[in-house]
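Hi W., the fe (ii) ion complex you wanted:
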Amino acid sequence: MSYIEFDAKYRTFTIMDQQHRQFIDILNRFFDDWIKDRKLDPHPYLMEVADYGQYHFDSEEKYMEENKITHLEEHKKVHKELMVSLANLIRRIESGEEITMETFQFLQGWLMNHVVGMDKRDYGL
Ligand SMILES: [Fe+2]
Ligand SMILES: [Fe+2]
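Structure:
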């Protein structure tokens, strides 16, 4: 079983679900590799998380603009804040902070709490 399963509470609609699932896949791969080797170099995984996170936020904002979804400016601001909090975590890890279960809990909540709270609200789900 994977570390994170795509739960029904995460469901939005097809295109965004695919991207949210893709993010979960990246975290699960990071987690599985870390379980096998606690001394792995986290850098490529963290870069993948950050790159995919940014790609997802950009594509979600584009979708929201095209579909005239409400709260766009507030949503964009929150995406920016999320990228800052992720950058802070990455900086701490690259300065030597150890990866623990809490790191994975943070990364899971980082995107998925936002999906359950704000994405669903702004898509009217
Ligand atoms: Fe999203
Ligand atoms: Fe979002």
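The first helix runs from residue 14 to 36.

W.
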